[in-house]
Write a sequence for this structure.
């Protein structure tokens, strides 16, 4: 299974890819959101690998490991960080399956992904990156993004043009 460093390297690669696709496309927001989520997946898996030497293969097991209400977990997150990860996961589900990003919404119409959803994804991803930087002293290159919905947002790891 992948190590902490391998997950961090993959997250950095995903951020580089996000920078690249964002430069060449001011659409395809579904892919922007999906890359953002899978960047977070690697950051979370790095955290789990470092804290407990566990390696999970399903989103459900990862979600349980970081759930702040799981009293026996050694890898749980704060409620705020856990909520950010879950919201990012739900935005990715929306992008991939055209369903509403609120799992309780059972409306059968198609829900598309727009720049406002990408903005939300980046805000959540920024919180997760900030945690990793503070907790593990890892460094990430600032990712350049173009998205009108991100203008005037306070972000630590993203520069908005």
């Amino acid at each position: 299974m992948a190590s902490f460093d391998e997950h961090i390297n993959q997250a950095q690669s995903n951020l580089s890819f996000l920078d690249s696709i964002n430069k060449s496309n001011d659409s395809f927001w579904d892919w922007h959101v999906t890359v953002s989520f899978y960047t977070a997946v690697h950051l979370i898996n790095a955290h789990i690998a470092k804290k407990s030497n566990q390696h999970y293969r399903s989103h459900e097991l990862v979600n349980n490991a970081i759930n702040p209400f799981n009293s026996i977990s050694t890898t749980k997150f704060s409620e705020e960080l856990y909520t950010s990860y879950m919201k990012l996961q739900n935005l990715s589900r929306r992008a991939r399956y055209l369903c509403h990003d609120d799992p309780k919404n059972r409306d059968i119409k198609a829900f598309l992904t727009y720049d406002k959803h990408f903005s939300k994804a980046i805000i959540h991803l920024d919180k997760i990156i900030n945690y990793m930087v503070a907790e593990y002293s890892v460094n990430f290159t600032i990712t350049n993004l173009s998205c009108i919905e991100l203008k005037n947002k306070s972000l630590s790891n993203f520069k908005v043009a």
In short: The beta strands are 143-145, 158-160. The chain has five helices and two strands. The helical segments are 4-24, 29-52, 59-66, 79-97, 115-136.
